[in-house]
Design brief:
- By secondary structure, the protein is mainly alpha-helical.
- Helices cover 71% and strands 0% of the residues.
- It has 26 helices and no strands.
- α2 packs antiparallel against α7 and α10 runs antiparallel to α11.
- The longest helix has 28 residues.
- The protein is elongated and about 100 Å long.
- The protein starts with a helix and ends in a 7-residue tail after the last helix.
């Protein structure tokens, strides 16, 4: 049969063949995938194996032959079929096969796909958003990026905005992965088009490389590295946009987004010190605003950002740069060292050392010195263990108590009182232990004390020399824990 005879039937043939990619597959493979975890098989590896087998099938070869013989005249009837397959296609192989076929069609007809680009991009975007399989989502994103190469500018703009919005709102793991893979494939398949939206995509990609999900972070890192030549030069180029994105992230109601923004600020301060120093006051104030209040998972990143920003002022020679208030910064960090969470206190002490080092030209001993001296002087000695005097409090075994039905409910009350007393004693011991732990680590405190003392003026030094010497003698005793 010749090409001309097949032309009127091509849309129907393509639709049937795409459906057959899944219908002709052994049903046992689908069953195996649904129970992959039970039998100890990685679902991702099983999907890749199924797709690899499908690509080598005679039906896939026939679809490839059809794609090579398509022309622009067939698109009017073919595109609606492909859109319908994106929305209602069933089966792993059918969904991936549809996306791959759209990619081949775009490569075949080129700019002729532009009038149909809007419909295809919309259907591919919706399919990728609702897809659970990462392999299928990547195939949809690849096809969408290929269509974007020839689509209208207005439609591509909507695509970029949709991806960036989905990362923040709703911002769940699936939505973030959808945004990441869509932008990654757009940058890979249509790099020239993505370059037009660099000021929107790259700042978000830089911050999102610190996402808590490793696969999402890796995709955004690929977007950033694939679109930039030099890290420091790129940070300087997009500094204004990066500051805006990071400040927005710090104000977010989502704790992971706050942590990402703080980590991004720290990375910027370490990789582009001179450029960040010019804007450090804005970033420092944004970080200090998030330092107080409730402790949340990952808040230590805010302390890391504050310390990194402070270090940008250490060797600063430009006198025109606005420096944040050193005293207010140190006061905020000192207050953070008094929090009860052990990991947060350790991060605060490290941050305090960096802040004192960065503000070495300012005498801040009057603020940072007293709590550090107190930590060195009152840190409890390590208790000596006496094997003959060891005692443990164990919960009473209420089952061993006799229950006399004749005494009615009195026995129950005795049990309850005994148990309540034991709980109170245990809680008191636990609280006492926590109170003992609310101290600063000795070695790190001494490092902070050194940093504070190195910038101390003569008057302050004379006033606190004796107290400092006493605290150091106490800290250097042999029975002190290090």
């Amino acid at each position: 049969v010749g090409k001309e005879q097949l032309r009127p039937h091509m849309p129907d043939l393509v639709g049937c063949m795409l459906e057959s990619l899944s219908s002709l597959e052994d049903s046992r493979l689908n069953y195996m995938e649904q129970h992959a975890e039970r039998v100890g098989i990685s679902q991702e590896k099983l999907e890749n194996a199924r797709l690899s087998s499908s690509r080598g099938s005679p039906m896939a070869d026939t679809l490839d032959l059809c794609a090579r013989n398509l022309d622009a005249g067939m698109l009017e009837a073919l595109v609606p079929k492909l859109v319908a397959m994106c929305r209602s296609g069933v089966g792993l192989n059918t969904r991936v096969g549809t996306a791959s076929f759209i990619t081949k069609v775009c490569e075949r007809v080129g700019k002729e796909i532009k009038p149909h680009g809007g419909k295809l991009m919309q259907s591919l975007t919706e399919a990728a958003r609702s897809e659970n399989s990462k392999a299928v989502r990547k195939a949809y994103a690849t096809a969408c990026g290929t269509v974007a190469k020839y689509a209208a500018e207005k439609r591509v703009t909507r695509l970029v905005e949709d991806a960036l919005t989905s990362y923040v709102d709703p911002g769940d793991a699936s939505a973030r992965h959808f945004a990441a893979v869509l932008l990654q494939q757009l940058s890979h398949q249509a790099s020239d088009v993505a370059a037009q939206y660099a000021t929107q995509i790259l700042p978000r990609a830089f911050m999102a490389q610190f996402d808590e999900e490793a696969d999402v972070a890796a995709l955004f890192l690929e977007v950033w590295e694939g679109s930039t030549a030099s890290r420091s030069a790129s940070l300087q180029l997009y500094m204004v946009e990066l500051i805006s994105v990071c400040c927005e992230g710090l104000k977010s109601s989502s704790w992971p987004h706050k942590a990402q923004a703080a980590k991004a600020v720290a990375a910027m301060a370490k990789d582009a010190k001179e450029n960040v120093a010019q804007h450090a006051a804005i970033l420092m104030n944004a970080c200090l605003a998030e330092l107080g209040g409730r402790l949340w998972d990952g808040k230590e990143a805010v302390l890391e950002a504050i310390g990194a920003l402070a270090l940008t002022f250490k060797d600063l020679t430009d006198t025109k740069v606005v420096i944040p208030d050193p005293q207010a910064t140190v006061k905020a960090v000192v207050a953070a060292t008094e929090r009860k969470k052990s990991e947060f206190r350790k991060a605060a002490v490290k941050c305090l050392k960096d802040v004192l080092t960065g503000f070495a030209k300012h005498d801040l001993f009057m603020i940072a010195g007293p709590p550090l001296l107190d930590a060195c002087a009152r840190l409890p000695s390590e208790p000596k263990k006496d094997p003959s005097n060891e005692s443990t409090v164990e919960a009473p075994d209420l089952r061993a108590w006799p229950v006399d039905p004749g005494v009615g409910g009195r026995c129950v009350h005795v049990h309850a009182v005994w148990w309540a007393c034991w709980v109170v004693v245990g809680a008191a011991d636990k609280q006492a232990a926590e109170d003992v732990k609310v101290v600063l680590p000795l070695a790190e405190s001494l490092e902070c004390l050194e940093a504070a003392w190195s910038a101390t003026g003569e008057a302050t030094m004379a006033e606190h020399a004796a107290a400092t010497a006493d605290a150091l003698r106490e800290a250097l005793k042999l029975d002190r824990p290090w």
